[in-house]
Description:
- The protein is mainly alpha-helical.
- It has one domain (7-42, 145-400): Glycosyltransferase (Alpha/alpha barrel), CATH 1.50.10.
- The protein has 14 helices and eight strands.
- The protein has helices spanning 7-14, 28-42, 59-75, 78-91, 118-125, 128-142, 164-180, 184-201, 234-247, 258-274, 299-314, 320-337, 369-374, 382-400, and strands at residues 161-163, 212-214, 283-284, 297-298, 338-340, 346-348, 351-352, 377-378.
- Strands 1-2 form a two-stranded antiparallel ribbon.
- Strand 5 (338-340) and strand 6 (346-348) form a beta hairpin.
- Helix 5 (118-125) packs antiparallel against helix 6 (128-142) and helix 11 (299-314) packs antiparallel against helix 12.
- The two termini are 37 Å apart.
Amino acid sequence: xxxxxxxxxxxxxxxxxxSKPKDNQISPIEWAKKMADSDQxxxxxxxxxxxxxxxxxxxxxxxxxxxxxxxYDYTKEQKYWDYGFSYADQLINKEGKxxxxxxxxxxxxxxxxxxxxxxxxxxxxxxxxxxxxxDTLHKQLEGHPRxxxxxxxxxxxxxxxxxxxxxxxxxxxxxxYGAVFNVPKSIDDAILQAELIQKHTFDSKTxxxxxxxxxxxVQFWANKETGRSSHIWGRAQxxxxxxxxxxxxxxxxxxxxxxxxxxxxxKVFTAVLxxxxxxxxxxxxxxxxxxxxxxxxxxxxSTMFVYSFAKAYRNGYVGSKFLKSARIGFNGIQKxxxxxxxxxxxxxxxxxxxxxxxxxxPKDRDGSFEYYISEPIRDDDAKAVGPFIMAxxxxxxxxxxx
Length: 402
C-alpha cells in the first residue's frame, strides 16, 4: 500500500509554509479536517475510540475529542463540536458523576486528561454536571499521592514513580482549572510537576528526557543510582513537549515562574529539534538510539513534536527554526505515514500502540530498547490522530497571520 496520497499533493505540501495555499493545494487545516472526518467515520461514537468495546473514560478519547473541539473553534463546523460534546454527554450523568470506569480512588493521572474538554462544554452549556465533574478531577489531584518533593505518582498502583506521560495527562487541566476558577495553587502545582519531571528525567548526554523516574530507586527498570529509566521513548518525550506548551496557556504573564517554564521548554525543544531525522523529517521510536537495528520512525511522537513546535512558535516561545522544523515534520508525516483508503478516508500508520514501565507484567516492561521496539504497531491510534489534527490547526493559524 502506498504511504502517501498522491505525489502531486506531496509536492504541494512541501511548499505550503512559504505562502497561503492555492485552490489546488491542501492546506494544513484541510489535512486536519480530513483526518478528523476519517476518524469519525471509523468510530462514529467517541466513547468507543481506541478500539474499546465498552464506553470508557480514558485519556485517548479525551485527546481526540479535544482535537475535535479545537477544530470546531477554528472552523465553526458543528460536527466537530458535536463529537466532543457527545463523549461528555454520555459519560457524565445528570448528577455530575463520571461514568465509563472512572474511580477517583485509583489516583491515575491518565483519568484526568478527558476533563480538558469540559471547560468549553461547561462554558457553552452552563450545565452544572460538567462543573461537578471538573471538581471531581480537581479533588483527585488535591489528594493524589506524591513523592517527597511534591511530584505526583503516575498512578496509585505505581508508587513513587513519575512518568513524562503524566505531566500531559494532568497538568494542563490543573493549570486551566486554576485559571478559570481562580485557584492559584492549581497553577503553581502544574508548574511544579513540569519542573520536577525535568529535574528528575533530564539526560545530560542528549538533552532529552528519560521516560520515568522512581524516587525510591527500587523498580526493576530504574537505575539504582539515579532512579531513571534507561532510554528516551519518543511518545513520552512528545507528551512532555505538549504539556509544556499547553500549561503555558494558563500561566499569568506576571507569574514568577513563567519565565522559568519557558526556559525549560526552550531547552527541551532544542534537544528534540536535534533529534529530528534529517532524511525523513520525522522522529524515531527510541530517540537516543537512531538507526539502531529494529528501531523505526514513529508517527505518534512525530505528530506531537510538530504540534508542540508550531504552537510554541506561534506563541513566541521559540524562534523560526522551530517553525521550519514543524513544517518539515508535517510534510514528513504525509510522506512516511499517511495512506489513502479505498473508501476515501485517510489513515496514519506506524503508531506504537502502547508502552509503559513495570506494572502487572514487569518482565516485558523493563524500559529497554528491545522492549520499546517490541510493542505492537498499528494504524490510526488516537495518540497520532489527535495531535495530527492539532498540528494542522496550529500550522494553519501561523499561515493565517501572513
